[in-house]
Amino acid sequence: MKPNINQIGQIVALLSFVLGTCLLSFYLFFGEDLINLGFALTYVIIALIINFIVFIVVIINGLFTKNNKGEALKTCGLMALNIPIAILYFYMVILFPNQNLI
Q1: Are 25 and 96 in contact (CB under 8 A)?
Q2: What's the CA gap between 100 and 44, in Å, rounded?
Q3: Which of 20, 37, 79, 99 has an alpha carbon 20 to 30 Å from 71's alpha carbon atom?
Q4: Residue 19 contacts residue 82 (beta carbons within 8 Å)
Q5: Quick one: DSSP state of residue 34?
């Protein structure tokens, strides 16, 4: 069975959250020895572009599919939750520069 755009949006949101959390955790626990900030920034930019494209496709699909509006709204909400989380992670990197928590 082929996944629909809402399922793809949910998967993209979950993967973005999990990968971002892993990167932050590695950075906070091991510092720049393990996670280069340039690599992390590249990940953030790529994730932002992918999430934005999928978000727009979900919105367009929700607008033009009668049965899909509620599911599209839920998916967009889930994807939008990553925004404040990313901001929080950004502040954590700013607050704990080059500090290993171990």
Answers
A1: no
A2: 21
A3: 20
A4: no
A5: T
Alpha carbon distance 74, 46 (integer Å): 23
**98 Rama class: left (phi>0) / alpha (psi -120 to 50) / beta:** left
pLDDT in tens, 41-99: 888 899 999 999 999 999 999 888 877 788 999 999 999 999 999 889 888 887 777 66
Q: Judging by beta carbons within 10 Å of its beta carbon (0-12, 13-18, 19+), is residue 97 exposed, middle or buried?
A: exposed
User: What does the block give as tokens for 52?
Assistant: 């934005």
% helix, strand, coil for the chain, step of 5? 85, 0, 15
Among candidate residues 1, 3, 79, 2, the one with its CA nearest the CA of residue 47: 79
Whole-prediction pTM:
0.82
Q: Kindly list the distances between the CA atom of residue 2 and the CA atoms of 27, 34, 39, 77, 88, in Å, as whole numbers in the listed order.
A: 36, 37, 32, 23, 35
Alpha-carbon distance 8 to 82, whole Å?
15
Q: Are 46 and 20 in contact (CB under 8 A)?
A: no
